[in-house]
Specification:
Carbonic Anhydrase II; 2 domains; 13-stranded mixed sheet; 32% strand; carbonate dehydratase activity
Length: 264
């Protein structure tokens, strides 16, 4: 009940904010200050609890009913061997890497990497990292979660999630971490090609559900595919990510009436 009252209060405050701007003009006309007001983070007054109040376009972060991440319960997942035909097409590609200030972003130089679900092809747009994992498996959080963001020709999104556990050194991750800029917004080109196919776990069982982006604007309608089996990174690799971003994970969201499928 308290959570529902808090949500209604946030919606009312946002409506008041919009009306005030319409009748009274911007709170601050300085473009630098205005840009600063739209910044979001994982802590304090710009953290996840307040995302929906920071900008009208972030409203789904507060009122959305299909938000991500969620806690996936294996026992409640609907097991199936034929959701849709899903195929991965990844080829050795040159990538750039950027420290966005919130995560490590890895972007391909072409659109030759894709996943096809049914008859729809989604091209890889970027890869980024969260520490600790955003999704949980049976109430368990992993040290890192990797997101591969894909988009089709109409703008619809499919995100592939990969959990990470401590283990052997990951050669694909090594290529990325060696090139991460130490300062925000700088972009480095990774001169050696990376085959993202080698980043996927060998066992391809995955969970599938409808959710949202886990960062503002928290857009819903995102198709999530999350591999059941984690990949490995060395403790040193995990530590490098955690040193850069001590915590960049959104809290769990209610699953509500959604169903989670497990395809083997």
């Amino acid at each position: 009940m308290y959570k529902e009252r808090f949500r209604k209060l946030l919606v009312f405050t946002l409506i008041f904010f919009i009306i005030s701007n319409i009748f009274n003009g911007p709170i601050n006309s300085d473009p630098v200050s205005s840009k600063r007001q739209l910044e979001w983070s994982y802590f304090g007054k710009t953290g996840p609890r307040y995302w929906g109040l920071l900008d009208p376009t972030f409203i789904q972060c507060t009122i959305g009913s299909m938000q991500s991440p969620i806690n996936i319960r294996t026992a409640k997942a609907i097991q199936t061997s034929g959701l849709e035909d899903i195929s991965f097409k990844y080829t050795p590609t040159i990538f750039s890497v950027k420290n966005s200030g919130r995560t490590i972003e890895v972007v391909p130089y072409n659109e030759k990497n894709s996943v096809t679900i049914g008859t729809t092809q989604y091209h890889l747009q970027q890869i980024h990292f969260h520490h600790p994992s955003e999704h949980q498996l049976d109430n368990r959080r992993f040290p890192v979660e990797v997101h591969l963001v894909h988009q089709d020709s109409t703008g619809r999104l499919t995100v592939i999630g990969i959990w990470v556990k401590a283990g052997d050194t990951n050669n694909i991750i090594s290529k990325i971490l060696e090139n991460v800029p130490k300062t925000d917004s700088k972009i480095h080109r990774i001169e050696k090609t990376i085959d993202i196919a080698n980043l996927l776990p060998k066992q391809k069982d995955f969970f599938k559900y409808k959710g949202s982006l886990t960062t503002p604007p928290c857009t819903e309608g995102v198709e999530w595919l999350i591999f059941k089996h984690p990949i490995e990174m060395s403790k040193r690799q995990i530590n490098k990510i955690t040193e850069l971003f001590p915590e960049n994970s959104r809290p769990l969201q209610p699953i509500n009436e959604r169903e989670v499928y497990l395809q083997k």
